[in-house]
Every structure is written in structure tokens, then in C-alpha cells.
Amino acid sequence: MSISLFLAQVLGCYFFLISLAMLVHHQRFKKTMHEFLGSSSLISLSGSFSLIFGLLIVASHNIWIAMWPVLITIIGWFLIIQGLMRVFFPERFSKVVKDMMAQNGYLVMCWVWLVIGLFLIWAGFSPGFN
After folding, report:
1. For a tag site, which of 37, 72, 74, 103 has the least CB within 10 Å?
2. Residue 105: pLDDT band by 50, 70, 90 thresholds?
3. pLDDT band at 101 (very low <50, low <70, confident <90, very high)
4. How far is residue 86's CA from residue 89's CA, in Å, rounded to a whole number?
């Protein structure tokens, strides 16, 4: 199995399940997010995890082609950038996310990650999809 298929399967299932839970239990997740955003320590800690996962993805899958595997590479770079923001600028990160959640950003992001998750599941588990 190629690294692209493996990452598509894992990331696809993760994004789909988490975003589905966030849509179904949106009040609980919004409350959790507000509590989380109040702690610079938690933001920094989660940033270190985001940074390491992004670095692992990019180091193992830095593929820039005009096909679906580039999405995995973009996700890796997104995690690196988000991790750096959380580690170096936790207060700024918190403000940006709070502002986004005050709008319709929460629902939009849930649906975006759900669609990305479904696409990666399809790409990762479809036989012969390359």
C-alpha cells in the first residue's frame, strides 16, 4: 500500500468522524472550544502535536502533483502552519478562532472537513483509484 493511500484512509476517517461528531454535538464542542481557547497552555501543547503531525506528513509525503495526493501534502503544511501559530502566538490564534466561531465559521469548517474526509475515504479505499 502506498503512503498516499494509507494517509488518505487514516486522515479521511479521522476528519469524517470528528467533523460528524462536531456537527451532531455542536453545543458541547462549541463549549469545549471556548474552554480550550481560554488556556494558552493547552493551545501551545496542542500546537506542538499539530506541528509534529504536520512535519511527519510532510517529511513522508511531500508530493506536489496535479492529482488527489497533493491534498494530503497541503493538509500536512496546514498542520505545520497552524502548529507554529499555536506555539508562537497562542493569544493571536485564540482571537482568530473566537472571531471565526462568532460568525458561521464553526459550521463552515465542520462541513469543509467532512467533505475532505469523505473525499479522502473515497480516494483511500476505492480499488484502483490513483
Report:
1. 103
2. confident
3. confident
4. 5
Residue 31 lies in a domain: yes
Please report whether residue 129 resides in a domain.
no
Kindly state whether residue 130 falls inside one of the protein's structural domains: no
> Residues with Cβ < 8 Å from 62, sequence gap 6 or more?
73, 76
Name the residue among 89, 101, 114, 85 with its Cα closest to residue 14: 114
What is the Cα–Cα distance from 127 to 112, expressed in whole angstroms? 25
DSSP 8-state code for residue 67: S
- By residue range, what is the domain housing residue 57? 3-124
Task: Give CA–CA dist 114/18, Å, rounded.
Answer: 8
Give the total number of structural domains in the chain: 1
Question: What Rg value do the Cα atoms of the chain yield, rounded?
Answer: 15
Over the stretch 86-96, which tens digit does the pLDDT of each residue have? 999 999 999 99
